[in-house]
Structures are given as C-alpha cells and as structure tokens.
Amino acid sequence: MPLAAIAAIGVAGSIAGGAIAAHGAGQAANAQVGAANHAADLQHQDTQAALAYQKEKDALAQQNAAPWLHAGQEALGQLSGYLSPGGALTQGFNEQFQAPTSITEQNDPGYQFRLQQGQKALQNSAAAKGGLLSGNTAKAFEDYTQQSASNEYGNVYNRAMQEYMNRYNVFENNQTNLYNRLAGISGLGQTSANQLNAQGQQSANNVSNILLTSGQQIGNDYQNAGAARASGYVGAGNAYAGALGGASNNIMDLLLLRQLSGGGSSDPYGLASGNYPS
After folding, report:
1. Helix, strand, coil shares, percent, the chain, to 5
2. For 87, which DSSP code?
3. Do residues 7 and 193 make contact, with C-beta atoms less than 8 angstroms apart?
C-alpha cells in the first residue's frame, strides 16, 4: 500500500478518534447536566411541598387557637370596661353603717322576747308572794326594764354591725369573683396569643431554614451542571487537540520517511502538488 495512503488513513483515524472522543465527552457532560438539573427540579418540588405543609400546620394551629383567643379578647374588653372610671368594678360599697337607736333596740324581736320573759317571771314571783300590785313590784319592773335595755344595746349593736359586715363581704366577694373570672378568661387568650406568636416565630425559622437549605442545594446542583458542561468542553477540546496532534505527527513521520528514502528534495514525491508516488 502506498505510504501516502497509509498517512491518509492515519490522519483520518486520528481525526475520527478525536471526533468520537469529543462526542463522548459531550454526551457525558450532557448526562451530568441533565442529572444535575433534574436534581434541582426535585429539590424545588420538595421545597414547595415542605412550605405547603408548614403553611397548612400554621393555619390549623391558628384555627384551633381562635376560640380561646377570641374569648380572651372579649373578656379583656369587658374587664377594661368594668375597670374604667364609672365601671362596675370601680364602684365602692356605698352603704354607711347606721348605729342602732333606742327605738331600734325596742323593736328588736330578740330584745322584746327576753324582756317579756323577764317581766313575766317577775309577775309570777310577785303574784306568788301576794305583792303583784305593790310599789316594790312596780319598782322591780322599772329596774329590770332599764337594766335589760342597757345590757341589750350592745347585743343589738353587734348584730347590726355583723349584718352590715356581711353585706360588705358579699359585695367584695361579688366584685372579686367577677374580676377573677374575666381575668382568667383573658389570661387564656393571652396564653393563646403567646403560643401563636411562638409558633409563628418557629414557623418563620422553619421556612427560612427550608429556603436556605433548598437554595444551597439547588445552587450546588447548578454548579455541578456548570462544572459538568465545562468538563465536557475541556474534554472535547482535548480530544480534538489530540486528534490534530496525531494527524500532524502522521504527516511529519511520512515526510521524514520520504526524506530518508529519497534524498534532499523538499518535496521529492510531489506531496505538495498531490502527485503521490506508488
């Protein structure tokens, strides 16, 4: 076979090999780019699913806490109204204690009963002694009545004071109960609000972490895609460079062989003119 044909086959083989290698490098790069892009798409879908789930849980938490929060807000509004000037919880106990008078004492059922019983006992005693209508009996009646009135006034006063204090305590207990009930319900609303605020902050942190992690991973996927594309370009360039270098070496080897076999002619076999010897 002519040397020129052998050289041409070598050149063609080098170029073909380079083209195949470059094509393979491109195909490999495309596969890596496709895989990286697919990974980025999957990561984006997972991120959207995670965000949707977080949003759903937040909405459910707000829905569950809404009745407590609403009740607390209403109770707080009522409590504020009751504590404002002129409100129900700012009204004092307006009743003033009235000390009992002698008339009050005389009209006291307990006093009247004890007085009647004592007078009856004196009458019975005087009648038994035969002195019911005597002056001594009248004096005994008068002394007993005055002494009973004097002794009984303290009892009447203490009972009046006790009744007054009972009414005051009832008033105070009613005020305290009203305040405590409204404050308790409003406290439940405050607790619900604090829990929602804490959950909102936690949700914000979760969303931030999801987005940051997803962004970082998607960025890495795109960087991998870019690196794969660049690697494909470099591989194709190296393949073509190697092919051209191989073809150039084949031609240089052929020229060297011609020089060694045919003398000093710079083109003894007509390579430049295309007249290759057989």
Report:
1. 85, 0, 15
2. S
3. no
At which residue do the structure tokens 């009522």 appear? 78
Task: Identify the CA nearest to 1 among candidates 199, 268, 254, 246.
Answer: 254
Q: Map tokens 């490999």 to a residue.
A: 28
The answer to whether the CB of 10 falls within 8 A of the CB of 216 is: no
Helix-helix angle 135-262:109-129, to 10 degrees = 150
> pTM above 0.70?
no
Tell me the per-residue pLDDT of 121-152, one tens digit each, with 9 for 90 and over: 656 666 666 555 555 656 665 655 666 665 66
CA distance 128 to 85: 71
Inter-residue contact 35 to 230 (CB < 8 Å): no
How far apart CA 250 and CA 256 sit, in angstroms, is 10
Rounded Cα distance between 24 and 16, Å, is: 12
Cα distance between residue 58 and residue 202, in whole Å:
10
Give the 3-state secondary structure of residue 82: helix
pLDDT digits (tens, 9 = 90+) for 41-91: 877 788 888 888 888 888 888 888 888 888 888 998 998 998 888 888 888
* CA atoms within 13 A of residue 233's CA, in its CB half-sphere: 6
Provide the token pair at 265.
């002619």
CA distance 210 to 43: 11
Tell me the DSSP string of 125-183. Answer: HHHHHT-TTSHHHHHHHHHHHHHHHHHHHHHHHHHHHHHHHHHHHHHHHHHHHHHHHHH
Q: Residue 114 and residue 145: Cα distance in Å, rounded?
A: 10
